[in-house]
Design a protein that fits this description.
The protein is mainly alpha-helical and about 290 residues long. The protein has helices at about 1-10, 30-55, 70-95, 110-125, 125-140, 150-160, 160-170, 180-205, 215-250, 260-289. It has ten helices and no strands. It starts with a helix and ends with a helix. Keywords: Membrane, Transmembrane, Transmembrane helix.
């Protein structure tokens, strides 16, 4: 039952035999590692600068971790650091042994860590787009571009976040998330809802104005249900985009790194086995003669 649970969520054993999480249909593993590393550094600097600004200038640092936007961006940063590390190691090993199919560290790690990596990747292709839609449709105001810092920070966390999400969808070979990940999306949104009201109880403000029940319970319920439905729609859209990319990329003659090498190794093993069996049969025949 546990094995099936992991399989259905996208963490089968052996894990990622095609090296999908560390390859791209468009770039070599080395270039993919460089791109992921650049995004990881940029997102980390963005998070750090905003936290310092909120703490020193506006004195709002204590509410930094109460916003879904920041939490989602932390998820993006974490995923890109993790994927950069795995891709970098794979690229180094592939360079040292170009005729083999090297493994990357995550393939040898405990299965729960593999599943957590898959889950984190699912949030990266789902939540950033939801954040972008909700912010620009419901929350944005002229003050978004009032100062250079405000313009840069809002573009970084409310626009570029979707760019990082789209890159993971179309710029890598990462497989589409499984349908059973939808409950994960709903659970995380529900947990954040609880965090938002804990923030109100402890700090006296609503992180997002539409969460204020004084506007009307029906109004509040409509927003909550609407965002949950939007989350499912975004998930489905992301899955469709990744499924399409997986179908289109090979049709353009693009080789998936690692898969070709693995097939060669399998062919060699089969040929070697066939040669050994032939030799044994020949020896037996000679003895009979």
């Amino acid at each position: 039952m546990l094995f099936s649970f992991y399989d259905q969520l996208g963490s089968p054993q052996p894990f990622d035999t095609k090296r999908s999480y560390v390859t791209s249909p468009w770039f070599s593993p080395a270039i993919l590692a460089a791109i992921r590393g650049t995004i990881a550094v940029y997102t980390f600097i963005t998070l750090l600068v905003i936290l310092i600004y909120d703490s020193v200038v506006t004195h709002d640092g204590n509410s930094y971790f109460s916003y879904f936007t920041e939490l989602t961006y932390i998820g993006i940063c974490s995923y890109y650091w993790a994927s950069f590390t795995q891709t970098f190691v794979y690229a180094i090993r592939l360079r040292r042994a170009p005729n083999k199919a090297p493994e990357y560290p995550l393939q040898r790690w405990p299965r729960i860590l593999q599943l957590l990596h898959v889950m984190l990747g699912t949030t990266v292709v789902s939540f950033p787009i939801l954040v972008t839609i909700v912010f620009w449709a419901l929350l944005a105001s002229p003050s978004v571009f009032a100062t250079p810092f405000s313009a840069w920070s809002n573009i970084s966390i409310h626009a570029l976040n979707t760019a990082w999400s789209l890159f993971e969808m179309v710029g890598t070979n990462s497989p589409p998330p499984r349908w059973l990940m939808i409950p994960l999306i709903i659970i995380i949104l529900a947990l954040y809802l609880g965090l938002a009201y804990i923030t109100y109880a402890t700090q006296g403000f609503y992180t997002y104005s539409f969460l204020d029940p004084s506007e009307g319970k029906a109004h509040l319920a409509g927003y909550i249900i609407g965002i949950a439905v939007a989350g499912c729609i975004v998930f489905t859209l992301a899955k469709t985009i990744m499924w399409t990319r997986a179908k289109v990329a090979p049709s353009k003659g693009i080789e998936v790194e690692g898969e070709e090498e693995e097939e060669k190794m399998t062919t060699k093993r089969v040929d070697s086995l066939g040669s050994s069996e032939t030799a044994v049969e020949k020896v037996k025949g000679d003895r009979m003669v």
